[in-house]
Design a protein that fits this description.
Elements (H helix, E strand, L loop, with lengths): L4 E11 L3 E2 L2 E2 H11 L4 E6 L2 E2 L7 E2 L10 E8 L1 H10 L8 E9 L9
Antiparallel strand pairs: 1-7, 1-8, 2-3, 4-7, 5-6
């Protein structure tokens, strides 16, 4: 088993209708992370939440919101996450972000870790 290494997790909070680069902002972040070879990215859709405008967005059976909260998490080495924030995330018009350090390991396809 390989050693744990310091990693950073970037968490970006967006609305489902937020746009960047001609597409949904969450999709833009995942594509940019992939293009830059970052270790991994995932997108999570929230059932309910609110942001800077203080409007609650929720998914109800009878009224489906078109702007549910979205969270994008991206994992990589701290310096690569910092560069990604400076090169990509800072260009977004909307959203909030958090960065936190973790210890972990990321296995590559075909590796024995």
């Amino acid at each position: 088993m390989s050693e744990l290494v310091p990693l950073s997790v970037l968490r970006v909070y967006l609305g489902e209708s937020d746009r960047a680069g001609g597409m949904a902002a969450y999709e833009y972040l995942v594509r940019e992370a992939h293009a830059r070879g970052l270790k991994g990215a995932s997108v999570f859709r929230g059932a309910s939440g609110y942001g800077a405008n203080s409007r609650i967005h929720t998914a109800k059976l009878l009224r489906l919101s078109e702007d549910l909260p979205m969270v994008v998490e991206i994992l990589d080495a701290p310096e690569r996450i910092e560069a990604f924030i400076n090169e990509v995330v800072d260009r977004l018009d909307k959203g909030a972000l958090a960065v936190f350090g973790v210890m972990g390991r990321v296995s590559a396809p075909g590796s024995k870790t």
